User: Fold this.
Amino acid sequence: MFVFLAVNILAKVAGRSATSQFAQSFAPGQELQGLLATFLKSRWDVMAAVDFASVEVWTKGGLVTFCLLFVMELKTRRVHFAGSTTSPDEASIKPIARELTNHEDGFLQGKRYLIMDHDKKFRESFRAFPSNENVEPVLLPPRSPNMNAHLERFFGSLKSECLDRLILSGERALRNAIDQYLVSCLPIGRT
Assistant:
């Protein structure tokens, strides 16, 4: 994980040619991974991760799958519930992206890098919002959940400790359960 993220961030900071020269300057067996881990940890405070989780909720129309969008500040592990939708299309995701990059109190204020996967839900318009606010999206390779391990671990805890134990009836109950979990179960709490 560290190697891929560090090389991608280094590519954004120093340019592609500098990155390839940097990576080629190490012989196999040298401490490249340790050096890249140190590089990443020195930028931990300007990095955030974003991802979707899904949960099924009973509604008047039957069982409905909701997509939940969470953002995590990697240094503090502070989690922000950005929103939920039943259809993660451009119309429903754009306002969430706008809120995350809000100049006054957006969660991504002061961040430089946003780690996200190649999920179809992250449309070009979603990726453009952070870029407009000087937050560079760092795209992870397809089918690599371990590359976003902190947020994936949070999803596992949220589901096993909270959502899987409840029969949720409606979006309001879902939001209340998530809010209560973030306030009471996480050491840092909700933002």
About this structure: The chain has two domains: 2-42, 46-184.
